[in-house]
Amino acid sequence: MNFDTYIDQRAEDIIKTTQEIIRIPSVKGPAQPGKPFGEDTYRALEYMLALGNSMGFRTKNLDGYIGYIEFGEGTEMVGILAHLDVVPPGGNWTYPPFAAEIHDGKIYGRGAIDDKGPAVAALYAMKALKDSGVPLNKRIRLILGLDEESGWECIQRYKETEEAPSLGFTPDADYPVIHAEKGIVHYKIFKQVEGNLPVRLIQLKGGDRPNIVPDYCEAVIEATPDIRDQVHDYLKKATDAPDLQVELCREENTLTLKAHGKSAHGSTPEKGINAISKIISLLHSCMKNFNISHPFIDFYMDCIGTETDGKSIGCLLEDSVSGKLTLNVGIASMDTSHAEIVIDIRYPVTFKEEDIYERIYPVVQRHGACIEKINEQSPLYVPKDHPLVQKLMKVYEDVTGEHREPLSIGGGTYARAFDNTVAFGATFPGEPELAHQTDEYILIDSLIRNAKIFARAIHALA
Ligand SMILES: [Zn+2]
User: Fold this and answer.
1) Are 177 and 198 in contact (CB under 8 A)?
2) What gap in Å lies between CA 43 and CA 67, rounded to an integer?
3) Fewer beta carbons under 10 A from the terminal one: N or C of the chain?
């Protein structure tokens, strides 16, 4: 069965639908009755369900948490898991993040690749199968979550009342197939601080989410009158360095620092430039210059600094299946009496969360700080010779003509929510990783190719 022609004929519809869904700015918002993640996430789900309905599929909205679009018969079910929520856009986009403008064959917008474009491609792949009349021995269900980027409450709600897929895939990572996903844990590390230093940190704020490398951080400090000019001069000189990208503003008695970094996905912190680490490094060198020690800033520099591998906090871990542990400082918030950060750690699949905690706890404690676990997802590991992995690899090879080994990633996908489910697509080898980044886009050619691959994948699995 060849679905390619069918999908090529519907390319315009696929593009238009992708644009329309990107234009719904479905960042998690305040809960409303029946809309637990806010108005916009709800609208995104309703949009997709209505479209599914109009294509002749069965649909269900589960109290605004998650929904699905289904067709076919059979006791078993192939699940395709996608999500319609997006992370906040952040600043400095070349094209507006929710306008879905097309430039150079790319649709720009938050969610274009993560994960709205792939969700739309999957829906049209289902339509291709349905209209082809090819016999299938399982039902096909596209499950659309609204809380993937935060606490996964959508998946919890789904599991309360709905059947788990017999097998499936989630187009929310990379091709060819992801057979291992690192464990994820978020910790809050905090400490009370005393206010009476000659250089007082009045406020520091950076980052919105643990799983994004923050591209902006701001700090306000106040020096005692005797060293005020010297502190200013020190920072002036430091921030004059052209590639540092930190602005300094002097007001009456205070100095404000505004640091710019480069955002990246929290699972690949080494690809970004962490604005929090940048500003803390600067404050640390300034304070050292005046023989001042701020207990939390010292802790930060001793144990994290600009590292992204967890070395100094005691977590330099690695295994052959999934590689090295990563650490991202996603949020920082400090004032004259309290300091805290939230870190996102991705640990290799052969370790457990307890292994990480046991290593970090004594380091944090030695610095008089506290640590609290706020979120966790266990690793996922499916052997490379598993039939699900083999079938999806074959589909990928058939369409692209190239053989590649299954991958291991640090990103957490819905695949870990169910047995017999792996991430499959939607970013092709060689394409940049754009999830959670400024100027996220999906290539129109890749969008269409995804639909073709998904159609074959559904056929192969059902
Ligand atoms: Zn995603």
Assistant:
1) no
2) 12
3) N
| Residues 166 and 278 placed together within one structural domain of the fold | no
Q: Which residues surround ligand 1, an ion (CB under 5 A)?
A: 114-115, 172
Q: pLDDT tens digits, residue range 398-424?
A: 999 999 999 999 888 999 999 999 999
Q: Does 174 lie in the same domain as 39?
A: yes
CATH number, domain with residue 24:
3.40.630.10
Cα–Cα distance list, 441 to 79, 108, 115, 419 (Å): 25, 4, 11, 31
Closest by alpha carbon to 238, among 292, 282, 200? 282
CA of 411 to the centre of ligand 1 (A): 9
Ligand 1: centre distance to CA 281 (Å): 31
> Whole-prediction pTM value?
0.81
* Ligand 1 centroid – CA 55 distance (Å): 25
Distance from residue 414's CA to the centre of ligand 1 (Å): 9
Query: In this predicted model, what pLDDT tens digit does every residue of 353-385 receive, in sequence order?
Result: 999 999 999 999 999 999 999 989 889 999 999
Q: What does the angle CA 160 – CA 161 – CA 167 come to, to the nearest 5 degrees? A: 90
What residues make up the domain containing 283? 184-377
DSSP-derived 3-state class of residue 32: strand
Ligand 1 centroid, distance to 346 Cα (angstroms)? 16
Which residues are the active-site residues?
A: 85, 148
